[in-house]
Automatic annotation (TrEMBL):
<feature type="active site" description="Proton acceptor">
    <location>
        <position position="93"/>
    </location>
</feature>
<feature type="binding site">
    <location>
        <begin position="93"/>
        <end position="97"/>
    </location>
    <ligand>
        <name>substrate</name>
    </ligand>
</feature>
<feature type="active site" description="Nucleophile">
    <location>
        <position position="267"/>
    </location>
</feature>
<dbReference type="InterPro" id="IPR050076">
    <property type="entry name" value="ArchSynthase1/Queuine_TRR"/>
</dbReference>
<dbReference type="GO" id="GO:0008479">
    <property type="term" value="F:tRNA-guanosine(34) queuine transglycosylase activity"/>
</dbReference>
<feature type="binding site">
    <location>
        <position position="310"/>
    </location>
    <ligand>
        <name>Zn(2+)</name>
    </ligand>
</feature>
<feature type="binding site">
    <location>
        <position position="217"/>
    </location>
    <ligand>
        <name>substrate</name>
    </ligand>
</feature>
<dbReference type="InterPro" id="IPR004803">
    <property type="entry name" value="TGT"/>
</dbReference>
<keyword id="KW-0819">tRNA processing</keyword>
<feature type="binding site">
    <location>
        <position position="307"/>
    </location>
    <ligand>
        <name>Zn(2+)</name>
    </ligand>
</feature>
<keyword id="KW-0328">Glycosyltransferase</keyword>
<feature type="binding site">
    <location>
        <position position="147"/>
    </location>
    <ligand>
        <name>substrate</name>
    </ligand>
</feature>
<dbReference type="GO" id="GO:0046872">
    <property type="term" value="F:metal ion binding"/>
</dbReference>
<keyword id="KW-0862">Zinc</keyword>
<feature type="binding site">
    <location>
        <position position="336"/>
    </location>
    <ligand>
        <name>Zn(2+)</name>
    </ligand>
</feature>
<feature type="binding site">
    <location>
        <position position="305"/>
    </location>
    <ligand>
        <name>Zn(2+)</name>
    </ligand>
</feature>
<comment type="pathway">
    <text>tRNA modification; tRNA-queuosine biosynthesis.</text>
</comment>
């Protein structure tokens, strides 16, 4: 198997897992956050900077690379790692989420999904076989099965039909996989907020030999307590000897709460996207550095952060760059936000090691301000 999970210990206070995932491009400790590099680049960051901040695995998007530059060009370059000069691990999604979220004109049938290219309007078709073929060409370490991502909320009847189709598509993904010795493939458990459907989806998918399992269909607009409840009844249905990945989640509180519910891997565009609006994650909560009150603030974004941005640049300077639309400003906030989440995951791993993740959560939430009424979150 190209992807293996090594369990190190379980936190006695919370049940969170400390582990290590081994891939053909190195190993990473879990729980881990994966920065998102949609178009074979984590926007404004160089691979050298990602390495410096401690990123071990990044995510890239199949749908976007399929449209631009085309997976054949990436393959000709020697695969995605060579193409973008990143030697760490890469996870690619299946394209399903983008097809379902970017395109209003789509038609789902048993064979796959017909939709229009969001750039050119051209008619396209994505199926389990096509999604795997593209990912085989990209050469990611971890590929994702092609699934349907139903909107929230979806009726029980709709969700049941969707879960069953996703299970049939999962089998087709495994059958279409041409490089099983070099690339892992994860299945995606769906079922929305319905426990019985999550159970059905997990049963179907765990009967197939995937190298890991994702919990999909969360962080799609449902309240956080619904997400936590779904995780509580879903992660126990997944094998303990394989990695578990919560898709599309990246706010600091949800990372901690996901780890507590047995999740090992997370990804989200949130830290990089908000960075480009001048919004930063700090140990004292959300900081909108664009705001006028920082015009003469010569302190760092976060006095508790050891990143090179916080050691060398002031809020006033970063605010000025962002206000002036200077690329360097976006680079600084992006670097800090990614560093902040990678560092947070390191603290989570330390806390698991010492059986005190519950205490850590309390302290972090208190300092971050989540416990205050009207706390500003992401
Ligand atoms: Zn920093």
């Amino acid at each position: 198997m190209p992807i293996t999970y090594e369990h190190i210990k379980t936190c006695k206070q919370t049940g969170a897992r400390l582990g290590r995932v081994h891939t053909p491009h190195g190993s990473f400790d879990t729980p881990m956050f994966m920065p998102v590099g949609t178009l074979a680049t984590v926007k404004t960051m160089s691979p050298e900077e990602l390495e410096e901040m401690g990123a071990k695995i990044i995510l890239s998007n199949t749908y976007h690379l399929w449209l631009r530059p085309g997976e054949d060009i990436v393959e000709e370059a020697g695969g995605l790692h060579k193409f973008m000069n990143w030697d760490g691990a890469i996870l690619t999604d299946s394209g399903g989420f983008q097809v379902f979220s970017l395109s209003d004109l789509r038609d789902i049938e048993e064979q796959g999904v017909h939709f229009r290219n969001h750039i050119s309007g051209e008619k396209l078709f994505l199926s389990p076989e096509k999604a795997i073929q593209i990912q085989n060409s990209l050469g990611s370490d971890i590929m994702m099965a092609f699934d349907e991502c139903p909107p929230y909320p979806a009726s029980h009847d709709y969700m049941k039909a969707s879960v069953e189709r996703t299970s049939r598509w999962a089998e087709r993904c495994l059958a279409a996989h041409k490089r099983p010795e070099e690339q892992g493939l994860f299945g995606i458990v769906q079922g929305g907020e319905y426990e019985e459907l999550r159970r059905q989806s997990a049963r179907d998918l765990t009967s197939l030999d995937f190298s890991g399992y994702a919990v999909g269909g969360l962080s799609v607009g449902e309240p956080k307590d619904v997400m936590n409840k779904v995780l509580e009844f879903t992660t126990p249905l997944l094998p303990t000897n394989k990695p578990r990945y919560l898709m599309g989640v990246g706010s600091p509180d949800s990372l901690i709460d996901g780890a507590i519910r047995g999740i090992d891997m997370f990804d989200c565009v949130l830290p990089t996207r908000v960075a480009r609006n001048g919004t930063c994650m700090t140990s004292n909560g959300r900081l909108v550095v664009r705001n006028a009150k920082y015009a003469r603030d010569f302190g760092p974004l976060d006095e508790n952060c050891g990143c090179h941005v916080c050691r060398n640049y002031s809020r006033a300077y970063i605010r000025h760059l962002i206000k002036a639309n200077e690329t360097f400003g976006f680079r600084l906030t992006t670097y800090h936000n990614l560093y902040f989440l990678l560092e947070l995951m390191m603290q989570v791993r330390e806390a698991i090691k010492e059986d005190r993740l519950g205490d850590f959560r309390e302290e972090f939430f208190e300092q971050y301000g989540f416990n205050k009424p009207n706390a500003k979150n992401f």
